[in-house]
Amino acid sequence: MPKDHGIGASPKRREDVRFLTGVGNYTDDINLNGQAYVHFLRSDVAHGKINGIDSTAAAAMPGVVRIFTGADFEGVGSIPCGWQVTDKHGQPMQEPAHPVLAQGKVRHVGDPIAAVVANTPEQARDAAEAIEVDMEELPAVIDMKAAVQEGATKVHDDLTSNLCYDWGFVEENKGAVDEAFSNAAHVTTLELVNNRLVANPMEPRVAVGDYARHNGESTLYTTSQNPHVIRLLMGAFVLGIPEHKLRVVAPDVGGGFGTKIFHYAEEAFCTFAAKAINRPVKWTSSRSEAFISDAHGRDHVTKIELALDADNNFTALRTETYANMGAYLSTFAPSVPTWLHGTLMAGNYKTPLIYVNVKAVFTNTVPVDAYRGAGRPEATYQLERVVDKAARELGVDPIALRRQNFITEFPYATPVAVEYDTGDYNATMDKLSEIADLSGFAARRAESEKNGKLRGLGVNCYIEACGIAPSNLVGQLGARAGLYESATVRVNATGGLVVMTGSHSHGQGHETSFPQVIAEMIGIDESMVEIVHGDTANTPMGMGTYGSRSLAVGGSAMVRATEKIINKARKIAAHLMEASEADIELKDGAFSVAGTDKSVAWGDVCLAAYVPHNYPLEDIEPGLEETAFYDPANFTYPSGAYCCEVEVDPDTGKVTIESFAAADDFGNIVNPMIVSGQVHGGIAQGIGQALLEGAVYDENGQLLSASYMDYAMPRADDVPFYSVDHSCVTPCTHNPLGVKGCGEAGAIGSPPAVVNAVVDALQSAGKDVTHIDMPLSPSRVWAAMNG
Amino acid sequence: MYNFEFVKPSTVAEAVSALGEEDAQALGGGQTLLPTMKQRLASPSKLVSLSGIADMKGVSADGGVLTIGGGTTHGTVAAEAGAYPALADLASHIGDPAVRNRGTIGGSLANNDPSACYPSAALASGATIVTNTREIAADDYFQGMFTTALNEGEIITAVKFPIPQAANYQKFLQPASRFALVGVFVAKYADGVRVAVTGASEEGVFRWSEAEEALNKEFRPDALMDLKVAPANMIGDLHGTKEYRAHLVGVMTKRAVTAAG
Ligand SMILES: Cc1cc2nc3c(=O)[nH]c(=O)nc-3n(C[C@H](O)[C@H](O)[C@H](O)COP(=O)(O)OP(=O)(O)OC[C@H]3O[C@@H](n4cnc5c(N)ncnc54)[C@H](O)[C@@H]3O)c2cc1C
After folding, report:
1. How far apart are alpha carbons A701 and A704 in whole angstroms?
2. Which domain holds residue B185?
């Protein structure tokens, strides 16, 4: 019998009622009295020198309140980067300034040049068109390898080159890795591209700045996954506003996928301008603007080599990656291709020697930063592709080759600095064989052949590090932030609870799953628990939601705070029942004295805390409210095995996904329905990356795929009904719930399965195709087949 | 969007006179024109909506000819053009339900997007484009990407399709827009086969005369075995190279012939 309550139950998502009935409160729903609207005049060239801006005519247009240019932001801080990577020579990365509005130069199509604030959005846009910019177009650098050539045009004149850093990991192992390659019985090499993506959350970014003259407090309403982080970055580094004079509110957020982690210029602008004109200032991104101003994801060019001994044991792995940073360093950009990528290169395998080299490169393109999975999909993709290629070169079964090299003993310290606490990769592979019906594949292939289609099967594993992250560790790695999480649990006098969490849902269903945990701990109904998030004014300083961290880190903070509550309530109960605290048991929402029929209900204990007439005031304070900050001891390491079956139409190259199975180990599961939903969404994004999506620039830096006419998002009929399973459970050993996180797994694990399947289909038909770069569009597949 | 005036006449004559004003433009279903205006890439001073003109709406079949009013939506064609199943099927695969409930055949043919579906049907059927002033044979009507024989202010009031013995439209989707990356309409008449290709050429919809000749001899996919269109004039973009489109023209034509039976 599935549970209907508490941990392990699947209550429907309570937040969906308001989302589905149109009463969600998104940032664009916030309209303040007297608000003005900003329109950003954005660069239409990728690289240019601004010789002058004439806004005289524009300023005289109807409704214009004020026009801002870079000159208004002299003396204002630069949009900061939150992570400093140290290169292989021990030098800090090159870190260019990132002005709120362009200072003399534009560096990508979409870079804001000027901002018109007017009474209506249309007036602002009309006036922006009347601004005359004297722009001297400069040659653009788009291709990463060309960008790091001697003599290449520089994106930033004050840097020595377009190389942000050249990172070697683990640098001390390089010699040993090279030696292992020279002794290898077999080496498999693969060059591939991890395609640039646009995140495309359903809700575009919005910012509303407000300034209260009576107390000098600024408020920013914004579409953010982490309002406290925005408050710190914008307040301390850009605008110089102390936290107690700055409130950041992120109400309902309609999807983020990473791109709403970062602090953006538009947020700082609206906050700054609201004070300057003494009126609220609102910006709502259009979809077209989102394509050229939201941070993009991925965009790696990689060469990976795998060394094997004569018995097909992996002996060493070596990679060289060019990672696109775009024109500026977005908030967490430098960490994505390094610490979120290099540390995962062991994957599920006991490869003893690994060396990862990453060159991060500035180009005249939109900044690139974390996107669902962030670094881990890039690691998984190359590793699982090269392992598959090795199996095919050696003529061995790809699953058998994987199993042979699996890590089987835990904890396991990888050669790339992380220690996996638990996992059972054979168990998820066994489960996958079952749910994907691997043994029935031959029959299905024969059936496809009858219909003139090529059928392929692709399998891969993944491991990811999430539950981000131990603060002391990430501090050593260059993070300029702690990565703990916080929760305040407030019990009301009649027993209901409010949890104020630093985590912030942008679609994950925290309002449903977090109460399940508390309901389980206290034995009360979930409806007695309310979740509050997204407002720095009423939540403790927390780091927000990304890196599959909400339950593992935010949930742990909530558990710790609730434990404090229960401990105090137990003392009160002991007092009320005149019993020893050690004898008090909490079950089904009541405290009882062990071995007696004495009991007192949860609500009565809470009431006693707030009406302390009969109360141990000499021992404890009245009230029932506790805060906890939880800093994880390690990352968590979800893992799994994925399988994709495709059909390829040999006449057109069109790939259709016939089935997709995912066997994941997420540790303990709080709400299986929400977990399945997270996996479904992740796989849809992974299939999107593998078959459809690609942000493509031409050589002049124009984004060719700048709308849905050319950027292909996955639609319902592009994806199959998934078969997902998360019954393989090796609980996390170091957090109180034993949970690992599931938000990114689908997007991490699925692209290699799709590509492996297509390669399998083509090779089975005798085509000499070893790799096709994503997205595997019909045109590319056909070209590969006929190449 | 810039400001504009809006009128909604109820007769063709009123519409024609309203369109006489400078920078006035006809509005069909708005499925192409409104997005363009929102992007500020078009700025008509006045929109003359054709959707209130009853005479321009509806589907009727008579004497082997299917007549569709210029203001008829794709949804209506999909539902009511049963006398010409291949055409009804084409209409049912344009865009999504919202597009089909607003977009019109007149708007589609007037716009002549190189990737649109209807132009291939009109050309392959040897249709007649009826306007407020004249009748234009499809062979004379399409004049390259986004270019037609229409004069300024001329309104497509109806389109007359001779009903073929057999026909089929094969649309290979551009993955993002889901317009035709390549679409081929094959129609077989007593006096010959016509093959029209959309989506593929830099010169817009075109007739593939070699295929027509081969199919006139033998209406079977095998008749096309050795035929290829030259890649040179094909569209090459991020969704498909010139060579790929040229190849698809062959594949889609064969499939259309097979499906037409
Ligand atoms: C999401 C989406 C998907 C689509 N997918 C497809 C697809 O798969 N295949 C496809 O073929 N099309 C597709 N379209 C285009 C759609 O079919 C449009 O309806 C069509 O291109 C234009 O018709 P309309 O009635 O909306 O014209 P409008 O947008 O109103 O007008 C288009 C042009 O035609 C002129 N015009 C309109 N009516 C007349 C008339 N009767 N006489 C003279 N001039 C006129 C207008 O002045 C304007 O210049 C899609 C559109 C969208 C938004």
Report:
1. 9
2. 166-260
| ipTM of this complex prediction, to 2 decimal places | 0.96
Q: Is B29 in the pocket of ligand 1 (CB under 6 A)?
A: yes
Query: Which helix (H) or strand (E) is A59 found in, with range?
Result: helix A56-59
In chain B, whose CA is at the least distance from the CA of A717? B175
- For the Cβ of B106 lying below 6 angstroms from any atom of ligand 1, the answer is yes
**What is the nearest CA distance from B84 to chain A, expressed in angstroms?**
28
Summary mean pLDDT of chain A: 97
Is B119 a pocket residue for ligand 1 (Cβ < 6 Å)?
no
Which domain CATH number covers B18? 3.30.43.10
Residues of chain B with pLDDT under 70: none
Q: Which domain range does residue A488 map to?
A: 15-22+484-630
A651 closest CB neighbour out of B1, B239, B251: B251
Same domain, B125 and B220: no
Beta carbons of A432 and A642 less than 8 angstroms apart: yes
Q: Are residues A719 and A693 in the same domain?
A: yes
Ligand 1 centre to CA of B31 (Å) is 5
CA distance A774 to A784: 12
User: Do A458 and A597 sit in the same domain of this protein?
Assistant: no
Among B134, B162, B190, identify where a domain stops.
Answer: B162
pLDDT digits (tens, 9 = 90+) for A689-701: 999 999 999 999 9
Is A563 within 8 Å of A570 (Cβ atoms)? no
Q: What share of chain B is helix, strand, coil (3-state, %, to 5)?
A: 35, 25, 40
Is there a contact between B240 and A710 if contact means CB atoms under 8 Å apart? no
CB contact under 8 A, B251 and A652: yes
Residues A265 and A226 in one domain: yes
Q: Is the CB of B42 under 6 A from ligand 1?
A: no
CA angle A540, A263, A749 (to 5 degrees): 90
